[in-house]
Amino acid sequence: MTALIEGFFGFVWFGWGQANASSGLRVGLAVAGVVALLVAVAGGVQAFRSPASTGVLHDRQARRRYGVAVGVEFSLAGVGAAVLAVAGQGDFIPVWVCAVVGLHFFPLASLLEDRLLVALGVSLTTVALVALVAGLVTDVAPSTVTGIGAGTLLTVFGLAALAGVHAEGTSQLSHTGNGKASRDLARARRCRPGPPPPAPGRRGLRAGPLTGTHWSRRPLPGQGTPRAPGWCS
């Protein structure tokens, strides 16, 4: 789903960048927009084929936090754009929106368990700053800067999500996500073959594989098939 969202908004930014661009630059932005749209389509196909039950947002609390983050993003972007329009500074609306979009990725990085979102957020806010300076001291339209910068970043990060690239130590950047699968894989890498360290037995419990900081329940005779020997730190 990440590739779908980032590809789509990359397409939107490339389109916005054409508003005040030269005719030659508009052609390049249009071509880039087609690429971003293809990334979005491929991301949609990938999301459709991914099991939703493994996603980070399968959890109700995670979905609520995600909704709050996105709701705040759209609210701030809309209010700021209205204020700039009323103040006669409409040319700087894309700067404000780009900054808000970049900042909203910081809480999402923790929620979606991928530090790549931090890098994307920093990059987008940097683009917004560059566009602001360009609009103040040059004749280049801020929308051209944000269109090129934000469109390129979102498309590239969408391609990375599509290819399964993820930050080390975190789950893949995905709204349907592979968070659970990544955590299971990380746990599996910590597992060791052979018997676990000795531990006192309990009634109804057998010294068995460690799962986190707790001893696993081992079936007593007749209660099922024992687990394969091994333990995890």
Structure notes:
This protein is mainly α and 233 residues long. It has two domains: 2-180, no CATH class; 204-233, no CATH class. The protein has helices at 2-17, 23-49, 60-86, 93-111, 116-137, 142-162, 179-190, and strands at 191-192, 210-211, 214-215, 231-232. A hairpin with a 2-residue loop joins strand 2 (210-211) and strand 3 (214-215). Helix 3 runs antiparallel to helix 4 and helix 4 packs parallel to helix 6 (142-162). The radius of gyration is 24 Å and the shape is globular. The chain starts with a helix and ends with a strand. Residues 168-182, 200-220 and 223-231 have low confidence and may be disordered.
Write a compact overview of the structure shown.
This protein is 62% helix and 3% strand. The chain is mainly alpha-helical and 233 residues long. The protein has 2 domains: 2-180, no CATH class; 204-233, no CATH class.
Going by helix content, strand content and strand pairing, the class is mainly alpha
Main β-sheet: number of strands, strand sense, barrel status? Answer: 2 strands, antiparallel
**What is the arithmetic mean of pLDDT?**
78
Query: What is the number of strand segments?
Result: 4
* Order of secondary-structure elements: HHHHHHHEEEE
How many independent structural domains?
A: 2
General shape: globular
Query: Kindly, what is the distance between the CA atoms of the first and last residues, rounded to a whole number of angstroms?
Result: 33 Å
Task: Tell me the fraction of residues in β-strands, as a range.
Answer: under 5%
The number of helical elements comes to 7
The oligomeric state is single chain
Residues in helices, as a percent range: 55-70%
The low-confidence parts are 168-182, 200-220, 223-231
Gyration radius over CA: 24 Å
